[in-house]
Amino acid sequence: MEVQLRIAMIGGGYVGLVSGTCFAEFGTDVAIVETNPDRLSALREGRIPIYEPGLDRLVAENVTAGRLTFGDDMAAAIRGADAVFLAVGTPSRRGDGQADTSYVYAAVEQIARVAEGYTVIVTKSTVPVGTGREIARIVRATRPDLDFDVASNPEFLREGNAIADFMRPDRVIIGTDQSKPGGTQRAQDILRKLYRPLYLLETPMVFTGLETAELIKYSANSFLAMKITFINEIADLCEKVGADVIDVARSIGLDGRIGKKFLHPSPGFGGSCFPKDTRALTAIGRNAGSPVRLIETTVAVNEARMQAMAQRIIAFAGGDVSGLTIGVLGLTFKPETDDMREAASITILDQLDRAGAHIRAFDPAGMQTARTVLPQSVIYCSDAVEVAEGADIVVVLTEWNEFRSLSPYKLKNRMKGRKIADLRNIWDPQAIREAGFDYISLGRPD
Ligand code: NAD
Ligand code: UGA
């Protein structure tokens, strides 16, 4: 009979909670360790501290089945665990853009102190190249007696689609120290067993070295960020030359070598990962004496774009928004999440606020966090139509489905002005203009 696997997941945030729950759903016993008291008490009380569709049901089922537990006792969680996953944050360090690995190393020291018997320490967090080796050094220094391996198993899930992404990934990457005397077969076998349900679905599994696995994650995120930035610049060009970015994106995407995904123009990519990971890759490249100039440019172009979008709204308003009311639909960095980290709305609304605009905003999931990061003066509304009340301009910043189906006439009845700036291209220009609006969007002909 198969022996039941047990793992500990250090960090119960977006990645730790989703991947821990999905491993439990695969039949593994999972102990999630979370040090944030608010997050932990929510989880213990059966509340999900993040917005992720379908996660509440999956967590409840696995808690009821006895496969998923939450706590803050590291020693209890890792006792007898076959693998300990690190899913703590690796935010950008202020100043140099490098990933801050302090949470990772702090957790590793805790693990090393209390581990008993053979342990595989696995980074699920996105970590700079060389982190796996540094983890091994810390463990050896803290516990020279401990039998352990380090593995890198980067996570590719997207917020809002996290469960499906974890359950049906394009690939699973497992990096181990291939130079280790005696090899790392034991660590690989444990990880292969953990991912067995995906193996059965014929998910490609790439077994590689530690550094390679770490670089794969940054390369994937940076490539996608570069792809978005490319189409954003093409959208700008379309506006100048009278071309349509939707047809350009669709047509180039039909070439299988390019692919149609991640070619939607936007006010700039945001979120907890693309901005920080592109900055981190440029730092990794510079430090290694091999600059990744395309990604350095991607970072600069994306940051400038968010500023430029605010200027575009001001220009659309006639050059001055002072005293005008701007209604904003969508605040989160993308739909189906409550995450506001590095959302374009932060830069754009900050500039509009400084320029003297009165901002009314609505987001289906992000308003609680928005209150902590957006200008104090923003007025939060209970729905999209309320946002339009007395507005001179309505601006779309996040493409939530409920905005797509909104009737322009409903907005018109409440608005003072007749201007709509749709920075996610959610509406049909002709229909909006026929409804009597002065309308701008991204990269589409007037
Ligand atoms: P997060 O901030 O939501 O979660 C991290 C959690 O770890 C927090 O709740 C924090 O309290 C907890 N924590 C920190 N130190 C701890 C410790 N010593 N013991 C126990 N808990 C501890 O972050 P996230 O979005 O889940 O990202 C985690 C990592 O995964 C990052 O490296 C990120 O780049 C990567 N990643 C994130 C996503 C995503 O969609 N968010 C996707 C793929 C990879
Ligand atoms: C992204 C990656 O897609 C995941 O594979 C990865 O695991 C994750 O980062 C991570 O490392 O954390 P996520 O940040 O959740 O996932 O969201 P995405 O759907 O990738 O969107 C990121 C940003 O790019 C958003 O601001 C979104 O609006 C923007 N975007 C995306 C565009 O502007 N255009 C597009 O065509 C696609």
TrEMBL record:
<keyword id="KW-0560">Oxidoreductase</keyword>
<dbReference type="InterPro" id="IPR008927">
    <property type="entry name" value="6-PGluconate_DH-like_C_sf"/>
</dbReference>
<dbReference type="InterPro" id="IPR001732">
    <property type="entry name" value="UDP-Glc/GDP-Man_DH_N"/>
</dbReference>
<feature type="binding site">
    <location>
        <position position="270"/>
    </location>
    <ligand>
        <name>substrate</name>
    </ligand>
</feature>
<feature type="binding site">
    <location>
        <position position="334"/>
    </location>
    <ligand>
        <name>substrate</name>
    </ligand>
</feature>
<feature type="binding site">
    <location>
        <begin position="156"/>
        <end position="159"/>
    </location>
    <ligand>
        <name>substrate</name>
    </ligand>
</feature>
<feature type="active site" description="Nucleophile">
    <location>
        <position position="273"/>
    </location>
</feature>
<keyword id="KW-0520">NAD</keyword>
<feature type="binding site">
    <location>
        <position position="159"/>
    </location>
    <ligand>
        <name>NAD(+)</name>
    </ligand>
</feature>
<comment type="pathway">
    <text>Nucleotide-sugar biosynthesis; UDP-alpha-D-glucuronate biosynthesis; UDP-alpha-D-glucuronate from UDP-alpha-D-glucose: step 1/1.</text>
</comment>
<feature type="binding site">
    <location>
        <position position="341"/>
    </location>
    <ligand>
        <name>NAD(+)</name>
    </ligand>
</feature>
<dbReference type="Pfam" id="PF03721">
    <property type="entry name" value="UDPG_MGDP_dh_N"/>
</dbReference>
<dbReference type="GO" id="GO:0000271">
    <property type="term" value="P:polysaccharide biosynthetic process"/>
</dbReference>
<dbReference type="Pfam" id="PF03720">
    <property type="entry name" value="UDPG_MGDP_dh_C"/>
</dbReference>
<dbReference type="InterPro" id="IPR014027">
    <property type="entry name" value="UDP-Glc/GDP-Man_DH_C"/>
</dbReference>
<feature type="domain" description="UDP-glucose/GDP-mannose dehydrogenase C-terminal">
    <location>
        <begin position="327"/>
        <end position="429"/>
    </location>
</feature>
<feature type="binding site">
    <location>
        <position position="90"/>
    </location>
    <ligand>
        <name>NAD(+)</name>
    </ligand>
</feature>
<feature type="binding site">
    <location>
        <position position="217"/>
    </location>
    <ligand>
        <name>substrate</name>
    </ligand>
</feature>
<dbReference type="InterPro" id="IPR017476">
    <property type="entry name" value="UDP-Glc/GDP-Man"/>
</dbReference>
<dbReference type="InterPro" id="IPR036291">
    <property type="entry name" value="NAD(P)-bd_dom_sf"/>
</dbReference>
<feature type="binding site">
    <location>
        <position position="126"/>
    </location>
    <ligand>
        <name>NAD(+)</name>
    </ligand>
</feature>
<feature type="binding site">
    <location>
        <position position="276"/>
    </location>
    <ligand>
        <name>NAD(+)</name>
    </ligand>
</feature>
<protein>
    <recommendedName>
        <fullName>UDP-glucose 6-dehydrogenase</fullName>
        <ecNumber>1.1.1.22</ecNumber>
    </recommendedName>
</protein>
<dbReference type="InterPro" id="IPR014026">
    <property type="entry name" value="UDP-Glc/GDP-Man_DH_dimer"/>
</dbReference>
<comment type="similarity">
    <text>Belongs to the UDP-glucose/GDP-mannose dehydrogenase family.</text>
</comment>
<dbReference type="InterPro" id="IPR036220">
    <property type="entry name" value="UDP-Glc/GDP-Man_DH_C_sf"/>
</dbReference>
<dbReference type="Pfam" id="PF00984">
    <property type="entry name" value="UDPG_MGDP_dh"/>
</dbReference>
<dbReference type="GO" id="GO:0003979">
    <property type="term" value="F:UDP-glucose 6-dehydrogenase activity"/>
</dbReference>
<feature type="binding site">
    <location>
        <begin position="262"/>
        <end position="266"/>
    </location>
    <ligand>
        <name>substrate</name>
    </ligand>
</feature>
<dbReference type="InterPro" id="IPR028357">
    <property type="entry name" value="UDPglc_DH_bac"/>
</dbReference>
<dbReference type="GO" id="GO:0006065">
    <property type="term" value="P:UDP-glucuronate biosynthetic process"/>
</dbReference>
<feature type="binding site">
    <location>
        <position position="39"/>
    </location>
    <ligand>
        <name>NAD(+)</name>
    </ligand>
</feature>
<dbReference type="GO" id="GO:0051287">
    <property type="term" value="F:NAD binding"/>
</dbReference>
